[in-house]
Amino acid sequence: xxxxxxxxxxxxxxxxxxxxxxxxxxxxxxxxxxxxxxxxxxxxxxxxxxxxxxxxxxxxxxxxxxxxxxxxxxxxxxxxxxxxxxxxxxxxxxxxxxxxxxxxxxxxxxxxxxxxxxxxxxxxxxxxxxxxxxxxxxxxxxxxxxxxxxxxxxxxxxxxxxxxxxxxxxxxxxxxxxxxxxxxxxxxxxxxxxxxxxxxxxxxx
Length: 205
Description:
The chain has about 200 residues and is α+β, with helices and mostly antiparallel strands. Helices cover about 15% and strands about 35% of the residues. The chain has 3 helices and 13 strands, in the order αβββββαββαββββββ. The chain has helices at about 5-15, 100-105, 135-150, and strands spanning about 20-30, 35, 55-65, 75-80, 90, 110-115, 115-120, 155, 155-160, 165-170, 175, 180-185, 195-200. The chain has a 6-stranded antiparallel beta sheet with strand order 1-3-4-13-12-5, with no helix packed on it. Strands 2-7-10-9-8 form a 5-stranded antiparallel beta sheet. The longest helix has 17 residues, at about 135-150. The protein is globular.
């Protein structure tokens, strides 16, 4: 797994004229961003947000699509923009349960997709989901999500917006995918600095 985002690939993916698909607006009511498999969200017992505080508000989410040599199109990056400033400095997204492993072993953990999809959301988005013990409501939620994804199916990728979830295809499918936070500059030791973007790397390269 990549230890840092490929900044050149990211810039190229979102260059003027590139294929960029709008995924809607994500409202963040807290300073917490989450990334998870949308079909497993009702069954998550303790989904932890990333440790990087993000600004509150409504922000644009975009998906960069890459055309492969065989003609297939895949989701390469998904980003949420907090500011239009360029991000020359990047930090890996870590949660409280992945911090120790990262510091000890240096291996960057990723958010796991088991179904081939991922979703960006904030902590309040979890409250919109049915609890696991309400099986009928969970089944309805899954069918609604499948239907929404089907309406936005594009050959080898799809996307959907359900409430405060921005859902998208996870690159090559099931696997672990990292998220990075881009900053306008490196924060000082005791400085609180919001990122200008958060980017999910779908690991096509």
